[in-house]
Amino acid sequence: MSYAKVLCVGLVGVTGHVVEVEADLAPGLPAVAISGLPDTALHEARDRVRAAIVNSGQRWPNRRITLNLLPATLPKFGSAFDLAIAVALLGGSGELPLLPLERVVVLGELGLDGTVRPVRGVLPMVAAAARAGLHRVVVPVGNAAEAAVIPGVRVRAVDTLHRMVGFVRDGTPLIEPPGPAPADGPDGPDLSEVAGQALGRRALEVAAAGGHHLALFGPPGAGKTMLAERLPSILPELDDDAALEVTALHSIAGLLPAGGRLLRRPPFQAPHHTATVASLVGGGSGLARPGAVSLAHRGVLFLDEAPEFGKGALEALRQPLEHGRVQLARSRGGTEYPARTQLVLAANPCPCARPAGDAYCECAPLVRRRYLGRLSGPLLDRIDVQVTLPPLRAAELMEAGVTGESSTTVAARVAAARRAAADRWAGSGWRVNAEVPGPWLRRPPWRLPERDTRELRGRLDSGSLSARGFDRVVRMAWTIADLDGRDRPHADDVREALQLRLGDGA
Ligand SMILES: [Zn+2]
Question: How many A from CA of 335 to the centre of ligand 1?
Fold first, then answer.
């Protein structure tokens, strides 16, 4: 036997595809050729596999070796193919009978000493195997818990190539994955811890209910960060599909918490303002790492001190926020990751971070305008809810014994409002009000009666509200009506929506 085949999985974005690793050994000058669109890591795989085989006490076949990864058209990134290549090679050389690996997917990177190392993205790889009707997988022991999250798949783990060879040759048992992890731990910060700040709490609730992006302006200590961190706690839990997608993205980033379970809470990402463009939108060699905007997919991306982010960073977020996905240019084909996230940004009114009117703030009006102006182009245009929080004494915010409504209570209202919106827009493809285009809301049957929009139209005529700002206010009015259980927004809802815009709106 001089030919063998082993199954593996390659990732394109978050989607896995079954890959056949073929090894053919022919007489001739010893050499190794790899075909099937390999990236640099795969060429390095050749050296790793050789060292691992020799250091595991196996014989390296001194023949003309051709390795082929099928389908050839599929771009292949990363080091998860190592173990499959090694096993296929030993099978092709006649050292190993590969019958036990019939319809088994083999994943893992090899160290030079023959250890099997964990790889990123095992969860979506195993999910792809299951989808393809392959229900047995062998994974690195470090990925066993994560692989076992996918239902209906028999997972076995390996720590060394030596153990793998023993399993295939003599049926030595592989390692069992750990049992299912306990349910999610404590849910994180709760809204009940934020006392006072009624405007901020209302803005947060409206943003959650309508899926609106949110901007919180205000002096340090106004509770901007406290509020933002609590947005996930009032959003609905992720459904099965979303949970799988979100967990897959964290798996590809190598950031899954130990223990292995689906992430059910909307994720929260708060990159620092010194974050690089790559860490925000993704990148890196080999299997591209998802950036913060993708790790926040179906959750919240929080930019604290937003004007401090570099111009390039803010600019780089524009396309993902608009399209709900990130396209990363690669040397061989692009990689695309989902990035449908709710943006929350916070900003101080001026670079010295002292409240307006504070005796110590010496920033000139022009400096202050310029500071917030950094946000206007790329981001602020997309944000419906923009509020300026009044300064609060710290004591007021976390007063002992005084608690606000809990996240559970607010989340119930948010869920009901989202159901109302989803019912209204059923069939149109929109799930939340933030997704509904402005012109749609200006036309019958959704157009609001003139008596309810009189003030808005006045502001439009006087130029203190732009056409886009008009649409945003109307959109928020619908969300407020949904929250309060009304079929359609009334004048009061429009008025409150207007308050949820910064100053006179823009
Ligand atoms: Zn200042």
Answer: 43
What is the spatial distance between Cα 166 and Cα 173, in angstroms, rounded to a whole number? 8
CB contact set of 296 (below 8 Å; sequence gap of 6+): 267, 268, 269, 339, 341, 342
Return the ∠ at Cα 399 (arms to 393 and 401), rounded to 5°: 170
| Nearest Cα to Cα of residue 76 among 454, 366, 333, 264 | 333
Q: Please, which pLDDT band fits residue 179 given cuts at 50, 70 and 90?
A: confident
Estimate to the nearest angstrom the gap between the alpha carbon of 460 and the chain centroid. Answer: 38
What per-residue confidence (pLDDT) applies to 187? 67
Q: Is 97 left (phi over 0), alpha (psi -120 to 50) or beta?
A: beta
> 338-358: per-residue pLDDT in tens?
999 999 999 988 888 776 566
| Ligand 1 centroid distance, CA of 503 (Å) | 19
CA of 428 to the centre of ligand 1 (A): 46
Backbone angles phi and psi of 322, in degrees to 5: -75, -40
Q: How many whole angstroms from 460 Cα to the centroid of ligand 1?
A: 31
> How many angstroms does the Cα of residue 322 sit away from the middle of ligand 1?
32
261 — pLDDT class (breaks 50, 70, 90): confident
Q: What is the pLDDT of residue 395?
A: 53
Distance 147 CA to ligand 1 centre (A): 52
